[in-house]
Amino acid sequence: MATAGVPQRKMTYFQVGGPDADANVQVRVPNVIALVGLPARGKTYISHKLCRYLNWIGIKTRAFNVGEYRRKACDLEKEGDFEFFSPYNIKGNRIREECARLAIEDMGQYLSSKEGEVAILDATNTTRARRRMVAEFCANRRTLVDPPFRVFFVESICDDPHIINSNITEVKINSPDYKGIMSHEEAKQDFLKRIENYKLQYEPLDEEEDEDLSFIKVINAGKSFYVHNVNGHVQSRVVYFLMNIHLLPRSIYLTRPRALFKSVTVVYCSGAKGPHRERIKNLRTNGRISFQHGESEYNQLGRLGGDSPLSENGLKYAEKLKDYFESEDISDLRVWSSQRIRAAQTAASLKKQATATEYWKVLDEIDAGICEGLTYEDFQARYPKQFAERDKDKYHYRYPSGESYEDLVTRLEPVIMELERQSNILVISHQAVLRCILAYFTNKNTEELPYLRVPLHTVIKLTPKAYSCEVEMFKFDVKAVNTYREKNQPCDHSISAPDGISSENAKEQSDGSAPKAVQTSCREQNSLTESNHLPSVAVEH
User: Fold this and answer.
1) How far apart are CA 464 and CA 474, in angstroms?
2) The domain over range 27-242 is classified in CATH as 3.40.50.720
């Protein structure tokens, strides 16, 4: 599937050794990733994940699903059952081959036009003849000025009946092939027969017979791998990514600390370790122990960046956050925190709820460079051209001597890899960082990413699904500075009620009851970027 709105980048190709040079020694060429495997082996899942990841790191990618071409070409009520996929069904074979050819041609046009850099062919490609057709098509794209396409096959092999049955039950029987046509049980039985038809002609990739091809075998959803003849940066990134993803159910929680402190001061947190223990200990006053990552002094003063401790409201939120995770009773919860004081305070408050707590420098807020500590009003007054450039292209704009959102994505790639590997995780970090993580899991493009809503005093719960990500937002009844600023909106800041809740409603929710949850699918997650319910603006990155 295409990711709309991903900025196009001018592609440059470098010939190494002349126009007849092998594609494997050329520096930059278009790449085709072709899936291989029987039905219900997670090929489309891999396709979706790869497409999302490559777009997120700035490699424009589109997936071409041959099944979608087939559904457009067939009457599913007459030609949608298992018999259509029999190797002895001449008409069915002809239609499926034609659909594959159309998808491959569209894929070729997508890459040749320089619209994208990577195309994913999401199909079974179970025969050696089909794979040779794909490889020859890519090799024949060579012209006097353009190199051939580089091909990488990704074969998903699975003999685990639990994984196969789960994929059929949760995904396949609800697909357009069966929805409204067969009952769930009829669909399941039909799909099992479809798999048997594919097995009759399945030829797995082989390191001897397919010696000249580049491929990876993903076995039983990542329990083991076989990698053969990897060439180039993109193929290496694909291998790296595939070796880190898993299918186990889990949730990822995101939250922001709020730093302020006028009369209330943060103090020593016995749960803090490493560089944070002494930094927080030095803030001790009156022997009071406070834990949290919420509103800060810089939040309230409308200043960029900073490393101030939690505000009074931030401390209140920390306590509610602790209560929330006590009620969730997550036995394997791990906490990852940035190394900013307010984040470390918040992580310390969850010492009893977490099986482990880690402090990551990579989770620190975006570096505002020479603008660190300025209010947005100061930024606009002192550097009007820089301010205007940032409003024009917030994703690519880099603070002088600081970072851009694009830099932040690069910095956070190891975090994404670890999040893909882990079970239940709470990430305590900052607005720009959490926007990048949220954009990855909700498949948001670079234009949307810098304007995603990550309100203070809110837990964002992400639950990855087969082809999407369920998003729930738990908003706590603690007042917070509103740090959201729309594109080109004048600078201002003030304290508001919880994000999206009026002051009147906030009073009604101040009885200590459970936080309000707003649930949405990432495919329909417009609420993360819409702006009609937030009345004021404070500092934000």
Assistant:
1) 17
2) no
